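As a warm-up, study this chain.
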Amino acid sequence: MFSDVGGLELLTLVVMAIIIFGPDKLPKLIQDTMGFIRKVRSFADNAKDDIRSELGPEFQDFEFEDLNPKNFVRKQLMGGQEDPLGLKEMKDSLDIRSVLDDKPAAPVNGRSGSVSFEKSAPAPASAGAPLAPGERPPFDPDAT
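Now compare it with the structure written out below.
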């Protein structure tokens, strides 16, 4: 909650609290604040327990953090030990390092192949005459 508050800011807040409330009222204020925080936490925990009991036994492992869509999808796709979509196998079969190192990659889905980053002659256009060496292709401003 206060991860971005540094030491100097915290010291400034303490000095301001002493100046505003005074050293004699500050301990009582801290006690009252901590009591309020404890009551709010217990209220939230009781509300969570009531919701879980009302949902029934199939939702006993329900966590309110699961309501975040990112956590929900992660739990549904990767929740158990099984991998229903085969994502782990797919991830293991794709080896980007072999592509970058120009090593032959492991076959994926029974197909073998390689990727080359070398420059090759451009593919001929589907319509029109082939270009002469060094000739630039025509430019069409409406096509871009």
